[in-house]
Design brief:
Two copies of one chain form a homodimer. The first copy, chain A, is α+β, with helices and mostly antiparallel strands. Chain A contains eight helices and 13 strands. A seven-stranded mixed sheet of chain A has the order 8-10-7-11-9-12-13. In chain A, strands 2-3-6-4-5 form a five-stranded mixed sheet, with helices on one face. In chain A, helix 2 runs parallel beside helix 3 and helix 2 runs parallel beside helix 6. The first copy, chain A, is globular.
């Protein structure tokens, strides 16, 4: 973990472009031809981000959806994607899911590369978007006094994964076929002071937004909508893959899309996130840290 | 092989954007903000595209250079890159080579993703460029009667790899640190009728250009400059990784950069490439077919 963080810090050291915020979960935003080009790249490895047993069509869908969600958080519309594809167990199924996802998100496949990877399948997807509103929202713009909002419930992907694992027959679509909120992101972009997608867990991603904005969020856990039984609330707040949008608005402003107010931004305090009055530390498990 | 080609054909079936020529070695070219955005993605796997024993700094260099060469063939200037990085044997060395290459090509790192890939290292790089001249050169524009040109010798990477393998101490830089010809590509773009980089072998890449342009090239093997002993000429014409630019000009036109005239374009004949009067068939080994 230390090595990994050191590597990312070193990468940040050579990411000298002013728009180069695109390491890990965030997008890069650069000026191109008088418009704002939004770029993001996600990689997924067999055995880490997906299992060999999973339906490759679902893997393809999630690869596309997670990138589209990055664009959604910038209020961007998709221009297209580039695919880095290592041949796997069932390429036809992957292709079927890819086609379905790209049609769903209206994101044409622009190009890419296919390779043999003897050690296990690794997938990469670069999504290219066009910002529909400028300045392009970032994680860093939240102001003290702002309200913190989320577009919908967390925990649905957690319940879906558990249904899949248990074979209970309960609906697993929220885990297998997550929805990126492109339309909501575009509607929100002109209004928000900060925005990001919740991919790694609400508390972890809120921590990241708080750090980027140099303030703290006081979050009321009971106000967070969950798509899970009440006794799983604590887990739902820490689970990823729901791809809701987390954003801030000036106090009292009314969101243009259905949303839930879950907290407020305060001067930087004892921790980036204060949950029900208790400061969360880095020792608390806040979400999914990418391996 | 059949499966792989079928997969790529199927991908082409969903690459519906008019600029979506970017599968495998070519770039995608799309309109964005009144300019031409040039996009390419290359993936490389340990044990296929590089060896575990190789210096990771050289691996990083080649990953960058091969993408920059794709931009060069479009007469594009680099805007930046996105990296998909699976942690490997010596991440610090990779980082050193990456930094060196990005500085050399003036291509900032805009973002990317880092992952653990238990089965072996897989790397992906997306390069973003801006076309300096429009229409952007493609492989498809060669006309009957055009001259076929190459910017420099082939075979240098082959000799470099052999030096590295034999431990002879001979210079292996051409293999380890290939040079993408960005300045030459930009100088050529306003003049060429077709252009591509030679990444997989001169005869194979000339075949691809001939097919894309729906004609045949008559190539005079003795006119092809080689950076190898004369008795290796046949190998040098089939070896990849030299990243010279291959292009066509109207008959008699004088190239703006040092180049060698190696053939002429004729009406589509018995084969896409006729070498010293002999039609080359797909059964002949023409170059490196990606695995």
């Amino acid at each position: 973990m230390t090595t990994e963080l050191a590597f990312i810090d070193a990468l940040r050291g050579i990411a000298t472009h002013p728009g180069a915020r695109g390491l890990d979960d965030d997008c890069a935003v650069i000026e191109f031809g008088g418009e704002a080009l939004v770029l993001t790249h996600d990689a997924m490895a067999e055995g880490v981000h997906f299992l060999r047993e999973q339906d490759p069509a679902d893997v393809a869908w999630k690869l596309v959806a997670s990138n589209m969600s990055d664009l959604a958080a910038k209020g961007a519309e998709p221009v297209g994607v580039l695919l880095g594809y290592a041949f796997g167990r069932d390429d036809a199924r992957f292709l079927a899911g890819l086609r379905e996802a790209l049609e769903h998100y209206n994101a044409p496949l622009l190009g890419g590369d296919t390779i043999a990877a003897p050690g296990g399948q690794v997938l990469g997807l670069t999504a290219i978007g066009r910002a529909t509103f400028r300045p392009v929202p970032s994680r860093a713009g939240a102001c003290i006094g702002d309200d913190l909002w989320i577009t919908g419930p967390v925990g649905a992907a957690m319940m879906g994964l558990e249904a899949l694992r248990s074979g209970s027959g309960d609906d697993s679509a929220a885990y297998r076929r997550p929805q990126a909120l492109l339309a909501q992101g575009q509607a929100l972009a002109p209004h928000v002071t900060a925005m990001m997608d919740v991919s790694d867990g609400l508390l972890l991603d809120a921590t990241r937004m708080a750090r980027a904005s140099a303030l703290s969020f006081a979050i009321d856990s009971a106000a967070v909508p969950i798509a899970a039984p009440e006794d799983r609330r604590a887990d739902a707040l820490r689970w990823g893959d729901d791809y809701q949008l987390l954003y801030t608005l000036p106090a009292g402003a009314v969101p243009p899309v259905p949303s839930h107010r879950i907290g407020t931004a305060r001067a930087s305090g004892s921790a980036p996130v204060i949950l029900d009055g208790i400061a969360l530390t880095d020792q608390d498990r806040l979400g999914y840290q990418h391996g």
